[in-house]
Specification:
The chain is α+β, with helices and mostly antiparallel strands and 173 residues long. It contains six helices and seven strands. β6 and β7 form a beta hairpin.
Length: 173
């Protein structure tokens, strides 16, 4: 069974291990950067098993958070409505193919509904390529919005999806 809860300071070492093991699919984090990101916003979450072993993490920000990431700034400049932005999602080896990513995104969807954010946004690396992540996000209902080259040398596809309540309302019209 997977539990989704808010990221704690005591989770940082495990998050950094998963991050390092997930390279180059996610941008590298060090302790200082993770601490800085943790202090911005309230949407960072982790997935843990029954023994409280960390299986994966999701770092996310609200459109009104004072975050400065390039991809986030693109969404802020190009989207008129409030959104939640996933900066990173990574699953450790013990959590893969167990629904951990889906559970993290389901929790994000709930947070978006509670905050009345109609959109959720993320990016997926296209250089270096991350086809598994792209396929996963497309299965979750994300759709391409555009692509950009970022300063760290990566190219990314920017993706959005409507929050569940918004999708249900749209389908009913």
């Amino acid at each position: 069974m997977v539990e989704i809860r808010r990221l704690r300071d005591s989770d940082h070492a495990a998050v950094l291990q998963i991050n390092a093991a997930s390279a180059p699919a996610v941008a590298p984090l060090d302790a200082d950067e993770l601490r800085r990101l943790s202090e911005i916003g309230e949407l960072h979450s982790v997935a843990v098993d029954a023994a409280q072993r960390l299986l994966g993490y999701l770092l996310a920000f609200s459109s009104d958070d004072p975050y400065d990431g390039e991809e986030f700034r693109y969404f802020r400049a190009n989207l008129a409505q409030p959104f939640l932005y996933v900066d990173q999602v990574a699953i450790g080896p013990h959590g893969r193919r167990q629904g951990v990513g889906r559970a993290l995104y389901a929790a994000l969807d709930t947070a978006a509904r509670l905050r009345q954010c109609g959109l959720q946004c993320c990016e997926v690396n296209t250089n270096p390529p991350n086809p598994d992540s792209m396929a996963f996000h497309l299965r979750l209902g994300f759709a391409p919005l555009g692509s950009i080259d970022v300063n760290d040398g990566r190219s990314v596809e920017l993706l959005t999806r409507a929050t569940t309540a918004t999708r249900a309302t749209t389908a009913a019209i």
